[in-house]
Design goal:
It is built from five helices and twelve strands. The N terminus is likely disordered. The strands form two sheets. It has a six-stranded mixed sheet, sandwiched between helices. A six-stranded mixed sheet has the order 8-7-12-11-10-9, sandwiched between helices. It is an alpha+beta fold. This is DUF8021 domain-containing protein.
Length: 294
């Protein structure tokens, strides 16, 4: 297991990181405001102290969703469930400045309560700089744990740490339209098998903790019709990332995060809620019962 920094160290790092961002932008909100809001969300999740977050929620139009179900953030949410917080072993965030949004993947490998969490956070368009009073208008999380599709947080962490999600050089970045089109093609092929998905090589597909494609992702696409509805996008041109939270056909609440380079898909991370049937009625791959090595 990888060592976890202390809570004070996490808080100091996140606050320093968010304060270093530039506040100048022509967009409706700034990168620094998104970084500060996301940092506060991460601190609240890792400490169990909602006061890091509550003063910055809009009092008039804030919504909190877990697995597409509205909840009271202070009573019953995963943010309030653990008074001492969750030990977050890994997090990675994409920032969508034009859309005033961020997406963060969190991995918790604690044996008693492991989680894979994907959270989209949205700010009001007037948010700027680090003045975030009442500017967070929605937090939308997909939360998976034991019994959800191919879940194994330790396996997910192992494979995630092997991947490259670093910033793409400015001259090589794809446009928002190209990035969204690549993600949409992936979803659309489940309805129309003639759709051309821009697969890159090498490409990996990590479904929960199951690496079901390693090198070539144009394999094992189910020969069934799965209609994805209510797609909610976060797009980061700097990282070549698109996250989509949606209703994934018969499977239900879902997040798919794509890493796209030169218009082609290179990494896919998915997390899918399974309810009421464990693993959505599918056989659990034998490798997920094995020790991954740390």
């Amino acid at each position: 297991m990888y060592p976890s920094p202390s809570t004070p160290a996490i808080i100091l790092f996140l606050l320093i990181h968010s304060s270093m961002a530039s506040t100048s932008t022509s967009s409706p909100c700034s990168l620094s405001s998104l970084q500060t809001a996301t940092s506060r969300y991460l601190i609240a999740q890792s400490t169990g102290q909602l006061n890091w977050l509550l003063p910055f929620l809009s009092p008039t139009n804030f919504t909190y969703l877990e697995n597409l179900v509205p909840l009271n953030i202070s009573n019953g949410s995963i943010l309030a469930l653990f008074p001492s917080g969750l030990k977050v072993d890994h997090s990675r965030t994409a920032y969508d400045v034009p859309n005033c949004a961020s997406y963060t993947e969190l991995l918790v490998t604690t044996p008693s309560h492991p989680y894979q969490i994907g959270t989209q956070l949205h700010l009001s368009p007037s948010s700027s700089g680090t003045n975030l009073t009442s500017s967070i208008i929605s937090i939308n999380s997909i939360i998976t744990t034991n019994g959800d599709l191919f879940f194994n947080a330790t396996h997910t962490l192992h494979y995630t740490l092997r991947e490259n999600w670093s910033p793409i050089p400015p001259g090589s970045r794809d446009s928002r339209a190209v990035l969204q089109a690549a993600a949409d093609a992936y979803y659309d092929v489940f309805v129309n098998k003639t759709v051309k998905v821009p697969w890159g090589k090498p490409c990996t597909r990590l479904e929960g903790g199951y690496l079901d494609a390693d090198g070539d992702c144009d394999t094992d696409i189910p020969d069934v019709t799965i209609l994805t509805t209510n797609r909610r996008y976060v797009i980061d041109e700097t990282l070549g990332v698109v996250d989509v939270i949606s209703n994934f056909g018969i499977l239900g609440p879902d997040s798919h995060e794509f890493r796209i380079v030169n218009g082609t898909i290179r990494h896919i991370h998915s997390m899918t809620l399974c309810s009421p049937v464990a693993n959505c009625g599918l056989e659990v791959p034998a490798i997920l019962t094995q020790d991954i090595g740390f």
